[in-house]
Amino acid sequence: MSDEFKKQAADRAAEDVTSGMRLGIGTGSTAEFFVHALARRVGEGLDVIGVPTSERTAELASSLGIRLTTLDEMPQLDLTVDGADELDPQLVLIKGGGGALLREKIVAAASGQMIVIADSSKQVETLGRFPLPIEVVPFGLEATRHAILKVLDALDLPPELELRGGSDRPFKTDGGHFILDAHLQKIKQAELLADRLVAIPGVVEHGLFINLATKAYVAGTDGVKTVLPIQVV
After folding, report:
1. Residue 172's CATH number
2. What single DSSP character describes residue 120?
3. Are 39 and 63 in contact (CB under 8 A)?
4. Which UniProt keywords are present, listed alphabetically (predicted)?
């Protein structure tokens, strides 16, 4: 059923798109449902232009007739629609399961709004069950890994880092980087962790998306719910 829920959330997000919008288009299985929904609306006359967050998304969107550009040509966007691996009540996200977190974050940050689309299994009270992707440059990998482990230790988080794809055939992002997946179980200080990770030379970006998502459409057995971030006082 999860595919059906993903499709429902994606279809609902596509309804929010209006002609003239400059769109960021996400990556991953849920985002692909959105690309198909958007293409159907484009076929009906919707006039939009999109910036894809990965080569895979670019290929799919282009094949379906969606007009595309780049952030160099169009550096400010109205809306990004993307999936998430986890989202908490404040709409802090873990993203990067598909390996496109750097481009996804750049595009989301260039957008006035970000709508997250997900099935209800992605909603959690505390982030961390899904491994946190940390994008790193290949040069000095072991030194970077060591620095990340020191940060995890200081924040009392499990020292479990796994090179995606393994050392024999490491996964490479569209930017040519590696990904270290951190199995943290529960992230109680997301902002502090985010700040300390990006301060490490060798870390390109991490999969914590903070203060980027403005709304989520979450689909489950009781339909599609609109989720807004709960403000922490």
Report:
1. 3.30.70.260
2. G
3. no
4. Isomerase
Contact indicator for 106, 203 with CB cutoff of 8 Å:
no
Instruction: Say which CATH number the domain at 25 has.
Output: 3.40.50.1360
pLDDT in tens, the chain (233 residues): 689 999 999 999 999 999 999 999 999 999 999 999 999 999 999 999 999 999 999 999 999 999 999 999 999 999 999 999 999 999 999 999 999 999 999 999 999 999 999 999 999 999 999 999 999 999 999 999 999 999 999 999 999 999 999 999 999 999 999 999 999 999 999 999 999 999 999 999 999 999 999 999 999 999 999 999 987 55
**Residue numbering of the annotated binding site for substrate:** 27-30, 82-85, 95-98, 122
C-alpha distances (whole Å) from 206 to each of 10, 17, 32, 143, 203 are 25, 28, 22, 17, 8
Q: Does residue 104 have an active-site annotation? A: yes
Are 52 and 109 within one domain?
A: yes
Residue among 15, 44, 59, 104 flagged as catalytic: 104
